[in-house]
Amino acid sequence: MKNRQDIIAARATPAGVGAVAVVRVSGPGVFELVDRLLKKPVSNADSHTAHFRALWDEDGLVDEALLTVFRAPHGYTGDDTVEISTHGSPYIVDRLIQALCRQGARPADAGEFTLRAFLNGKLDLAQAEAVADLISSESAASHKAALGQLRGGISEEISLMRTRLIDFAALIELELDFSEEDVEFARRDDLIAQVNEALEKIQTLLKTFAQGNAVKEGVQVVFAGRPNAGKSTLFNLLLQEDRAIVSDIAGTTRDALEDVLLIEGMRYRLIDTAGIREATDTIEKLGIERTWQYMQGSAMVLYVADVSDNTPLQLLEDLNTLAGKAQQVWVVGNKTDLVQDWNSIEWQAAAQAGGAAGFIGVSGKNPEDRQQLREYLYQNSAFKSDLSDQTLITNQRHFHAFLKAEESLLRVLEAIEAGISKEMLAFDLREALAALGEITGEITTEDLLGSIFGKFCIGK
Ligand SMILES: Nc1nc2c(ncn2[C@@H]2O[C@H](COP(=O)(O)OP(=O)(O)OP(=O)(O)O)[C@@H](O)[C@H]2O)c(=O)[nH]1
Ligand SMILES: [Mg+2]
Question: How far is the CA of 214 from the centre of ligand 1 (A)?
Fold first, then answer.
């Protein structure tokens, strides 16, 4: 890890031209360093004040800018910081950062400002990760989940669990010190109750991961079916644009196409695929292999069947070939406009017999069916944008740490019941505490910090 005493500088706004660009400079001694680019100092300014100043380097005037001063321990990083808002020209920003570096600053690494905030105790690790999620959130639901985590949702729950378990761990360690006397400081009943309570909390949180992950990454929905069934037509209808090529030639879609659809603040990643049949050439064959892969990896498969060209029996046969290769299949009977007397009951029955979770009949040529299709998707994706205040686990790392904690706590219970040695009990309790502590960063390693903060953008 690089020196925490360095003064670091980076552009905090996106690269390119804009009305305003912000350069952030932070570290002990930053005010004196910035003063050297000014005729009128800011080093005597109060925290949280803004100052209009001309910026100078060796070659002359760089820009006129607004400097915001944050004094330790306030501000984002908890170190002395100046945020310089210049005119939004990449040239000005580069020249300013170079001037700052000549005065003794160095370019900040990705996530280094947030890393410092963490090291200064302004944020715990789960909150720091929430910052990255917040920046990249693209839907109301993921924004809400990230914001909840940033405000300490998960951290609070964990610290409560930890404090209680730490007390017990301490008592058990004490018992170990008096091991010859066979005393029990920690009442086993109370310990069991505490562990059970913690387990319940952890298991509830673990269950939210599927939803949390869907909220963060989006629900993957794949369109599959025979060639010409109208997959691309329905894909375009939902997206309201001519995203995929539609034609009456079977085998039009070769490669999978992906796009994002937002419904009620929830993100869906729609994937249009190549129609399934005996491939006629190598490229089509590769496309169809991809269709199978996507089906396996998707939370939902929308299986499109052409009700004007196929029979319910054919649908049943198709669905049987999907068995075990797709998680949840929802059938869409398409081209209802072409047949007057299609028997929806029979189609529904075939879908059900084939193990599909639902059936809907639509026409891809009828714009009004778009709403119906959206509803179908939204109601049936197990992950509705439940914008309630439930804390969600949205992060793989947290999920695995909770799993570890769960395992250790289950072993604690077993150990008590089986009357296994106190050493083992103490060990498992410590393991559980460590796993929980990893989430908030009470227990960290440099590798872990490197991998978390390396994913941030520079300037954050
Ligand atoms: N009348 C009618 N025609 C439709 C409907 N949906 C699709 N079509 C037509 O059916 C043909 C095939 O549609 P596509 O959307 O390309 O079908 P696909 O399933 O993507 O086909 P592949 O990419 O070849 O697997 C096109 O000529 C569409 O215009 C519908 O609901 N009604
Ligand atoms: Mg297609």
Answer: 29
Domains with residue ranges and CATH for the chain: 8-122 (3.30.1360.120), 130-208+392-441 (1.20.120.430), 220-380 (3.40.50.300)
Q: Would you say the CB of residue 240 lies under 6 angstroms from ligand 1?
A: no
At 106, the amino acid letter reads R
Ligand nearest to the CA of 276: 1
Distance CA 216, CA 212 (A): 6
Tell me which residue has its CA closest to atom 4 in ligand 1. 335
285 C-alpha to ligand 2 centroid (Å): 15
CA of 231, nearest ligand number: 1
Per-residue pLDDT of the chain (460 residues; tens, 9 = 90+): 678 899 999 999 988 889 999 999 999 999 999 999 999 999 999 999 999 999 999 999 999 999 999 999 999 999 999 999 999 999 999 999 999 999 999 999 999 999 999 999 999 999 998 888 888 888 887 888 888 888 888 888 898 899 989 988 888 888 888 777 777 777 888 889 999 999 999 998 898 887 788 888 888 999 999 999 999 999 999 999 999 999 999 999 999 999 999 888 888 999 999 999 998 899 999 999 999 999 988 889 999 999 999 999 999 999 999 988 888 899 999 999 999 888 999 999 999 999 999 999 999 999 999 999 999 998 887 665 554 567 788 888 999 999 999 999 999 999 888 887 888 888 999 999 999 999 998 877 787 788 888 888 888 8
CA 328 to ligand 2 center in whole angstroms:
21
Bridge partners, residue 358, by sequence: 330
The helix/strand/coil state of 252 is coil
Whole-number Å distance, alpha carbon 97 to ligand 2 midpoint, is 50
Choose which residue among 246, 291, 368 to substitute to test ligand 1 binding: the one with the highest number of ligand atoms within 8 A of its C-beta: 246
First to last CA, the chain: 17
- pTM metric for this prediction: 0.72
| CB of 236 closer than 6 angstroms to any ligand 1 atom | no
| CA-272 nearest atom, ligand 1 | 20
CA atoms of 278 and 291, how far apart (whole Å): 13
* Nearest Cα to Cα of residue 25 among 38, 132, 89: 38
For residue 320, the CA-to-ligand 1 centroid distance in Å is 23
Closest ligand to the CA of 307:
1
- The response to whether residue 228 sits with its C-beta less than 6 Å from ligand 1 reads yes
**Nearest-10 crossing angle of helices 153-177, 188-207:** 150
- Measured distance CA(178)–CA(180) in Å, rounded: 6
Residues 150 and 132: their CA atoms lie apart, in Å, by 10
Task: Report the atom number in ligand 1 closest to the C-alpha of 338.
Answer: 1
